[in-house]
Amino acid sequence: MTRKKLFGQILKKKSYLCVGLDTDINRIPKHLLQYENPVLEFNKQIIEATQDLCVAYKPNVAFYESMGPQGWQILAETLEHIPKEHFTIADAKRGDIGNTSEMYARAFFDKMSFDALTIAPYMGEDSVRPFLGFQGKWVILLALTSNPGSHNFQRTLQENNEPLFEKVMRSSAEWASPEEMMFVVGATHAEDFKKIREIAPDNFLLVPGVGKQGGDLKKLSELGMNDHVGLLVNSSRGILYAGDAEDFAEKAREAALVLQREMEVVLNERFG
Amino acid sequence: MTRKKLFGQILKKKSYLCVGLDTDINRIPKHLLQYENPVLEFNKQIIEATQDLCVAYKPNVAFYESMGPQGWQILAETLEHIPKEHFTIADAKRGDIGNTSEMYARAFFDKMSFDALTIAPYMGEDSVRPFLGFQGKWVILLALTSNPGSHNFQRTLQENNEPLFEKVMRSSAEWASPEEMMFVVGATHAEDFKKIREIAPDNFLLVPGVGKQGGDLKKLSELGMNDHVGLLVNSSRGILYAGDAEDFAEKAREAALVLQREMEVVLNERFG
Predict the structure, then answer these.
(1) What CATH number has the domain bearing residue B100?
(2) Tens of pLDDT, residues A129-150
(3) Chain A residues within 8 A of B164 when measuring between CB atoms
(4) Chain B hits for A103, Cβ within 8 Å
(5) Cβ of B59 under 8 Å from any chain A Cβ?
(6) ipTM for this model
(7) Within its chain, how far is the Cα of B240 from the centroid?
(8) Cα–Cα distance for residue pair A41/A63, rounded to 1 Å
(9) A234 CB within 8 Å of a chain B CB
(10) Minimum distance, in Å, between the CA of residue B271 and any CA atom of chain A
(11) pLDDT tens for residues A53-88?
């Protein structure tokens, strides 16, 4: 999907919401366990209930891997249930030497047809390049994550007083244009978005950490939005597990609607 | 597997060789394509031909993922063909926020029964801790990798003039003991091993980059060995693809034997 098309979808739906499909069989409503494939059934109902409110879906691959080979089948089938106009992100945080990264690119872009893949930057340029140059496909590079451990290394100052995550963003801007690279920037510190937009004015940012992790949607939107919107704000657990009974999909829709309405207000102010 | 048991295996076999099972269906001998499961057949023959010469096997998970759901089945079946006395490493380079890392731990330590998993450190402490505390299981943290991109961030000097990879090693020593944490240190710069042993005197190091990538086995062994040997030296392509005809397993054995004999000389000098 091109940046322009993603921008168009956002304006059309008045939403830059990404729903994280981090489906844990131990947390889904008990009545689904009677289905042959409870996780797939859960995902299908979540997708049906939220598809008009979001522009993207992001399964975290770990949740599917933990189910063994069958999990990969469920991931592939979940992808088939996502409408074509949605942007699809495999949250896999991969990254390895060149020939191995090519294998991962094959797994997520060819075998399965995700639009984007999250990548960890620690191994540097030749671990990222194999994922670039696939038409309409995206690399989403980890920059500043939303977990406490982001302080261990990502915020460590380099000899020029620049935190590591800024160096990652500046360096990788030399490898790929904003037409094929996004960055993960956690919502937990909205004040960072001002500085981040100086470094990466044009890139889309994938923003986890709104909801359960405590990020402030309005503030980060004001500071982080660019003229293509440039934000995909993800919510996973806050939507998936909003309810735990037979009406879980309805509850999930309500939780998604709260976020979408906040987004509509911001979008109307800026683009209305 | 405990550190003591691994040390014992090394002395018994006079080898600290790890064979990397990075099996690419496009590179295996053509006659294997007649088998129902060519990759598994290749792995079985490689394991049979090399098991007395090595103490560890390390499948790179990317190569199996790239085959879709069936690839995970092949990975699990490959693991079953590895004798119990071998140390098994899933080279997956995972790392995610706490609840997701738990899922990965479940996938590799419970669903499949690997002894160790490689982890990328970029997301910090709470992305690593969920992999710790499994009895007999190991985290192998990326420190200094063998690829050109290791210069992009891993060697970047921090404000105290310490390269990032040293900070990673020093920080993570506070999270886990040498009984459950190893580090990946590439063989391409043997001179680094002296400094690395000052930082991590007791940890095992998993060393890729010998062979195709040009590392010097003798020199890095002299500088990197500790009183538990403390080294697992990996070779993948140099062994797997030593031959491309019906005698590929024999050729793989010959390539492994060259490395094992070099190791035997070093071990006899030090522990003989």
Answers:
(1) 3.20.20.70
(2) 999 999 999 999 999 998 999 9
(3) 153, 156, 164
(4) 24, 60, 62-63, 65-66
(5) no
(6) 0.92
(7) 15
(8) 15
(9) no
(10) 34
(11) 999 999 999 999 888 888 989 999 999 999 999 999
